[in-house]
Amino acid sequence: MHGPDDGSVPHPESFYGIREAALKHAKTPAKGGNEAKYLEAFFKARVKVMRLEAAHEDISRVTAQRKFLKEKKYNLQTPLKWKMYGTPFVIKKEPK
């Protein structure tokens, strides 16, 4: 959705621009930061960029991602339950 640009000089609306904005508020886990704080900073920066264009004003996907963050499912551990546009979804644990 945001495009990667080349990362050398991040465009504010690109993936790297969003990442740069998030890094102003939280360190990545690789740099000793808290994963939840970094992801929330990234989501906040992403929503800000999404709201710049009418075509991207729907932030439902970010809302679903924040639900997983609140549940501490950083690795998307199953089961995952969420709603998208009013439709419930479940990914159950796969049998061994």
From TrEMBL:
<dbReference type="Pfam" id="PF01374">
    <property type="entry name" value="Glyco_hydro_46"/>
</dbReference>
<dbReference type="InterPro" id="IPR023346">
    <property type="entry name" value="Lysozyme-like_dom_sf"/>
</dbReference>
<protein>
    <submittedName>
        <fullName>Chitosanase</fullName>
    </submittedName>
</protein>
<dbReference type="InterPro" id="IPR000400">
    <property type="entry name" value="Glyco_hydro_46"/>
</dbReference>
<dbReference type="GO" id="GO:0005576">
    <property type="term" value="C:extracellular region"/>
</dbReference>
<dbReference type="GO" id="GO:0005975">
    <property type="term" value="P:carbohydrate metabolic process"/>
</dbReference>
<dbReference type="GO" id="GO:0016977">
    <property type="term" value="F:chitosanase activity"/>
</dbReference>
